[in-house]
Amino acid sequence: MQLGIHLPQAGSQATPELIRRHARQAEDLGLSDIWVSEHIIVPRKQFPRSPLFYDPILTLTWVAAVTERVRLGTSVIVLPMRHPLPLAKELSTLQNLSGGRLILGVGVGWLEAEFNALGVPFQERGRRMDEGIAMMRAVWSEDPVTFEAKYIPAVIDNMRMQPKPEKPIPIWIGGTSEPALERALRLDGWHGSRATPEQAAPIVARLRARRPEPEFAMLALGRPRHRHDEGARRRLCRGWRAAHHGASARPRSGRLGYRPRRRRQTRRLNLTLRSGFASAAPESVRNPHR
Questions:
Q1: C-alpha span between 24 and 70 (Å, rounded)
Q2: Residue 283 scores a pLDDT above 50
Q3: Is 119 left (phi over 0), alpha (psi -120 to 50) or beta?
Q4: Which of 28, 115, 264, 282 could disulfide-link to 122, CB 3.0 to 4.6 Å?
């Protein structure tokens, strides 16, 4: 099994030192990947405890400087809220500065008030998502580049953007809707946020049937009902592996036993299914917004 954690970059307990310490500890423990989430601006009523979200790209740049091996993932960036050109520049820069460790998880988003605050049409987020991905891939691969945009304000005619990513940036699509699954099949992986093992099993089977190559990645997030119950974490992880492999599975010894040093902070179990592996990721700081 491969293990990863969601970094404590959101909520009232998030601090630069805590983020750095968890990233270093993840690498020292041999974990596979570390993840961050995104909100730009949020309604007070829906986020009463804390509106704090450190920017995901800057956070990953911060931890890339203090790590060497662990992969760096976004879980997820709400792509339709952002203009793809500065985002593409930031991502390609991070990919090169980190030695090619970036995993780009993107989703269409759900918080309409956030879109309204940013002046982005909420009802067009699916179309902006598709066009944004196409625009970023164009500027990453073509030099010079010409791109005709329909939904995103941009005139790109015989222009140049550098640096190009030294390694391709894998794009994993978040969500369980039909459009999300179809996008995932066209790209590099599926990020099944908050899907249970029961929900994920038919999706995993469907995606694997159409994309059998091991390079196609699948990731899912879940949480045990009792957050301090080690047995619940093990059962949930076995459920994910069974969903992925179609059979019961046992965790490899020594990996699921990882717990953060401050056990009282453990709240959530993230599970990654990709390329034939299941990855359980205990989040070490409570997300106050869930």
A1: 9
A2: no
A3: left
A4: 115
**Domain ranges within the chain, ordered by starting residue:** 4-283
Q: How far apart are CA 142 and CA 94, in angstroms?
A: 19
pLDDT value at residue 133: 98
Q: Pairing between strand 268-274 and 217-222?
A: antiparallel
- Give φ, ψ of 273 to 5 degrees: -115, 115
Q: Where are the alpha helices (DSSP H) in 142-258?
A: 178-186, 197-210, 230-245
> In 100-194, where do the E strands start and end?
102-107, 145-148, 155-159, 171-174, 189-192
What kind of fold does domain 4-283 have according to CATH? TIM Barrel (3.20.20)
Asked if 172 contacts 187 with a C-beta cutoff of 8 angstroms, the reply is yes
Least confident residue range of 52-56, 112-116, 171-175, 278-282: 278-282
User: What pLDDT was estimated at residue 112?
Assistant: 97
Count Cβ neighbours within 10 Å for each residue of 102-122 and write b for 16 or more, e otherwise: bbbbbbbbebeebbeeeebeb
Structure tokens at 115: 């879109």
